[in-house]
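Title: Prediction job returns without error message
Component: structure pipeline
Severity: low
Priority: P3
Assignee: unassigned

Description:
Job completed but the reporter wants confirmation the result is attached to the right record. Sequence as submitted:
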Amino acid sequence: MKNFILTCVFIFIGATTLAQDLPSYLTDAEKEVLKTYVHPVYNFGSTVPPSKPVRTMAEWEELDGIIITWTYYLDILRQIVDYAQEEGKVYIVCTDSNYVKNYLTAWSVPLKNLKFLIASFNSVWVRDYGPWCVYSDVIDSLYLVDWI
């Protein structure tokens, strides 16, 4: 029992240490990109807000898929794609889908449930500028919202 508890502690410490690879600040590369950043302009969709109150989807609610931006931290993104495609669609925003496919294939990641979106982006943190799901009428109507 004592060995089991020690093993669990070491696994927990190792997992939390490995999870600290991502910075909680702008990297030097992101600071350079920020100098020339231009807010995206969209020519599609509706600019009229929903007529009823909405609520943001909770992190525990069921998803049809996830969206990532293929730019920095490719080793971590590869792992996200590898595991997430088992559960649902993975939307990958990138500038070159062939590069992404070759990278994933080189690491023996299957290319299933993937949708490539060739589009501009401003950083790896798509949750900060990408679409958000909101519900109206509890869960009756699903909308995608650009909070900008």
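Comment from assignee: result matches the submitted record. Residues 1-12 have pLDDT under 50 and may be disordered.
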